[in-house]
């Protein structure tokens, strides 16, 4: 049996890894291209099965992925016009989740339907509102994906860890040691942090006046920077619950790098999350250069992302083995981040594998 050391430091009685993601937000559940016209897609939020339906005409919609009749997944059914028919007995549901036809019952006899989830599509992502509170206005934009001044790549994966490990990993730039074989030596310098209601952000710089940067840093940051000597070199990592962004400026107001990340818990215990990354790079004056370097950038970002995923999965494994959070965090902004994630998380939650009440309407 593993015994927690006496001097292990605990910052709060609530284990952050047991704080559920607050469902009263918009969460990305699929890339647009995954949901084909006239087809369904099986998604999940914290153990809740959700079917996305893209009718051949009309807007995409999202329903509970369980037929009201015998609970089989509606995602196995067929899209028929603007409706969804269950694969088993052919009950038909409309976009609001109402059962509008039971083929073998007389007209007017209709059982209760299934839950509808507010849903919208933007910049290559499909979002649902899993909460039972009123849905807020859809997000205004996803990073710089809609801005033609940027070239954007979308990637991500299923990561076997609690979503809070993802937030901490990105915000704590002091982990560049992990990436040394991919990036070479990169030395970010912490400048300061700010916080407000439901958000906090941390600034880093790579600039060291009068000093030569390490080679890895010179290649990566210098490449983004353009001409030497014009650098402002400011990187800001921000958690605006429940999303994260990473932006980097070199000169002017427009960031040269703009990354948006969403983390959607998949299982009821929230030990796995689907990470969605929308990464945009500002096009240089000669855009062909960026196109030319794009495969290298894709390789590089995939590799850094894999290294991050691997290490956060190890953190989750340690948490599972120890049954609690033994972390001894020393970087003050991460304490602030953990506090924010605790405060914004699902009130009173302690996901332990129990399925959330989907609040069927
Ligand atoms: S189980 Fe869906 S129609 Fe019977
Ligand atoms: Fe990293």
Walk me through what this model shows:
- The protein has about 350 residues and is α+β, with helices and mostly antiparallel strands.
- The chain folds into two domains: about 20-130, Rieske Iron-sulfur Protein; about 150-345, Naphthalene 1,2-dioxygenase Alpha Subunit, Chain A, domain 1 (Alpha-Beta Complex), CATH 3.90.380.
- The chain contains five helices and 18 strands.
- A seven-stranded antiparallel beta sheet has the order 12-18-17-16-15-14-13, covered by helices on one side. Strands 2-3-4-9 form a four-stranded antiparallel beta sheet, with no helix packed on it. A four-stranded antiparallel beta sheet has the order 5-6-7-8, with no helix packed on it.
- Strand 16 (about 245-250) and strand 17 (about 255-265) form a beta hairpin.
- Helix 1 packs antiparallel against helix 5.
- The longest helix is centred in the C-terminal third of the chain and has 36 residues, at about 285-320.
- The chain starts with about 25 loop residues before the first strand and ends in a 17-residue tail after the last helix.
- The site of fe (ii) ion has 5 residues, from helix 4.
In a nutshell, what does this entry contain?
The protein is built from 5 helices and 18 strands.
């Amino acid at each position: 049996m593993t015994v927690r050391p006496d001097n292990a430091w605990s910052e709060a009685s609530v284990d952050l890894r047991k704080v559920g993601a607050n469902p009263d937000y918009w969460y990305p559940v699929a890339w647009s291209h995954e949901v084909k016209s006239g087809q369904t897609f099986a998604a999940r939020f914290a153990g809740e099965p959700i079917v996305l339906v893209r009718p051949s005409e009309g807007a995409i919609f999202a329903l509970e992925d369980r037929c009201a009749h015998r609970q089989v997944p509606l995602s196995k059914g067929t899209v028929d016009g603007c409706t969804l028919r269950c694969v088993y007995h052919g009950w038909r549901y409309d976009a609001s989740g109402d059962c509008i036809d039971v083929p073998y019952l007389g007209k007017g006899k209709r059982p209760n339907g299934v839950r509808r989830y507010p849903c919208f599509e933007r910049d290559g992502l499909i979002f649902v509102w899993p909460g039972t509170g009123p849905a807020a206005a859809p997000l205004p934009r996803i990073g710089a994906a809609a801005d033609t001044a940027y070239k954007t790549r979308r990637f991500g994966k299923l990561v076997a860890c609690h979503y809070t490990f993802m937030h901490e990993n990105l915000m704590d730039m002091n982990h560049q040691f992990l990436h040394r074989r991919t990036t070479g030596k990169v030395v970010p310098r912490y400048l300061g942090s700010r916080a407000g209601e439901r958000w906090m952000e941390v600034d880093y710089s790579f600039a060291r006046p009068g000093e030569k940067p390490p080679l890895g840093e010179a290649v990566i940051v210098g490449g983004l920077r353009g001409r030497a000597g014009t650098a402002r070199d400011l990187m800001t990592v921000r958690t605006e619950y429940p999303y994260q962004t990473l932006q980097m400026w070199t000169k002017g107001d427009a960031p040269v790098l703009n990354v948006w990340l969403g983390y959607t818990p998949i299982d009821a215990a929230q030990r796995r999350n689907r990470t969605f990354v929308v990464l945009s790079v500002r096009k240089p004056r000669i855009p062909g250069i960026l196109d030319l370097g794009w495969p290298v950038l894709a390789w590089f970002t995939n590799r850094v992302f894999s290294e991050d995923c691997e290490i956060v999965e190890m953190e989750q494994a340690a948490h599972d083995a120890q049954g609690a959070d033994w972390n001894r965090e020393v970087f003050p902004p991460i304490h602030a981040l953990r506090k924010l994630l605790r405060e914004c998380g699902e009130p009173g939650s302690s996901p332990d594998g129990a399925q959330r009440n989907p609040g069927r309407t």
